[in-house]
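May I ask for a protein sequence together with how it folds?
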Amino acid sequence: MSDSCVARVPIFSQLTPEQQDAVALLARPVRVKTGDRLFMQGERNAPLIVVHRGAVKLVRTAADGRERVVRVLHEGEFSGEATLLTGARPEHEAVALEDVEACSFRREDFAKLLAEHPQVGLSMMGVLSRRLQESQDLLDQVTSRSVDVRIANYLLSLEAEPVGDDIRVTFPVLKKDVASLLGTTPESLSRALKRLTRRGLITPDGSGIILLDMDGLIALADE
């Protein structure tokens, strides 16, 4: 249990192995298939979800039915802390982008966890502070930077893999979800990718993108 739900999670990394085993006793394993929901928007008593394997997108649905991807969670990342800490219902739903293994904590169990291991709360505060800064940075980009600049920043933030002499990245979500994350439309995203291709900065490569000119992308991202 500790290997799948606790040991590899950054917010629990400062605990001793014995403490991690104790935390694991409070965790409830969750396994869902691609497209399944881990919790619903507005769900009462939604749990804290910590991803062990796979990826989860957080989607907020507006009153007019429009959906916006808020964040994508990968291994070791979590969501649902607001519900546990304040009792508020989640403002988004969590949907599995692929088969997901995760662990969940109920509010009363998590309160016990924080009381016994306050360093977990401090670790969470660090993560939440980084998220707040990322949200502020994205807001600044959406209001003051072109789509091309936003995409350049996003491409440079993705995990890259060498392919021969080239560097390749892959979108972790569908292009429509990437567009939502960047505060634009799928059509604008496609046009911007074509512009970057014409400039010789990138080139499509099946399901991924080859970064042809890293210096050029960095310069564009810094505009």
